[in-house]
Prior knowledge:
Blueprint: H1 2-34, H2 49-52, H3 58-65, H4 67-74, H5 78-92, H6 104-117, H7 121-128, H8 132-154, H9 160-174, E1 179-189, E2 208-215, E3 221-229, H10 234-240, H11 242-249, E4 258-259, E5 266-267, E6 270-272, E7 283-284, E8 292-295, E9 309-312, H12 330-344, H13 352-357
Parallel strand pairs: 1-6, 6-7
Antiparallel strand pairs: 1-2, 2-3, 4-5, 8-9
Amino acid sequence: MENEDIQWCNYVNQVHHRKVLLVYLAILHKKNKSRSKPRWHVKPFLKERRVHGHCHCLTSELQLTNSELYQNFVRMSASTFEELVCIVGPKIMRFPSRPDILSVGEVLTATLRYLASGESMMSIMYSFRIGKATVSKLIFQCCEVLWDTLNTKVLVVPDTKKWAQLGVEFENKWQVPNCIGSIDGKHIIHQAFANSGSENYNYKGSHSIILLEMCDASYNFTIVNIGAAGRCSDGGVFSNSEMGKGFMANSLNFPTAKDIDSNSGPIPYYALGDEAFPLLTNLMRPYPGRGVRYYSGPLDIEPDEDNRWATLEMGALRPVNQLGTNTYSANAKIIRNKLKDHFSGEGAVAFQYERLVK
């Protein structure tokens, strides 16, 4: 009797094992059946990259026939592009493992176009006929190489001689003497980082990091501070950055002060900023306040109520002691007043009042 029970138990166990095995095989078969094989290794339109892609079709044509449009497309001249290829080429070169390998020129052109236009990766994929995953990876790698290679060569704090040269260029182009550049902040919008909370949430309702930069007369960066959280103000970022500390300590090697007209006396070299920045002897900001009026008529008669009065958005000529509070030194106040007098007298240009009203 006991033998029969044992045999029966063995039989039941074998049947159970077979059922489990059959269920497992059925599930495995269903997975393999639903997994469709790819129709092609490379999508057909991507294979036409060397015929219809932007790098081989559009940019090559522009490089030969229209240098102005080429520079607009990649934001640099053809000679500068070739120089850049020589500099970063060894670090982004892809070693050939198949005949349609991407060249350094293709990778660099796609990266520069992405940076210049702000287009999506999908748009770059269709334009240059490079796979989405590939182009995303290559642009990220190329940006890292560009930064590591060029930041110590391009973003070098100018010396005294270079600052003086930038001042001459600014005066020639914008009629602002002793000015070595303008400073402002820019919010670079991005998707919220994982577990970042509201760290990068800005007043515009988006997530961003802040690029604080100073530019010369031709909009080229001279000093930058990158990476501050979007919740910070421009003034706060400036105060805590190496750039701001250099301004406040006056340690950026600006040239010595010089006269800008017959009445001003020595005026130090300075940068221009908006109301977000502090007023320093080497950093000028506009007078605070809105709805300020200026007189554009003859100076030897009393102004009347005709069109010689106009309303400005910023207090260009309003006395400092009649405006809102702002902490600054007496020297900074004197320098700003001298600049005000200069731009209202010898330094005035024909179009300035029209531009201010607009």
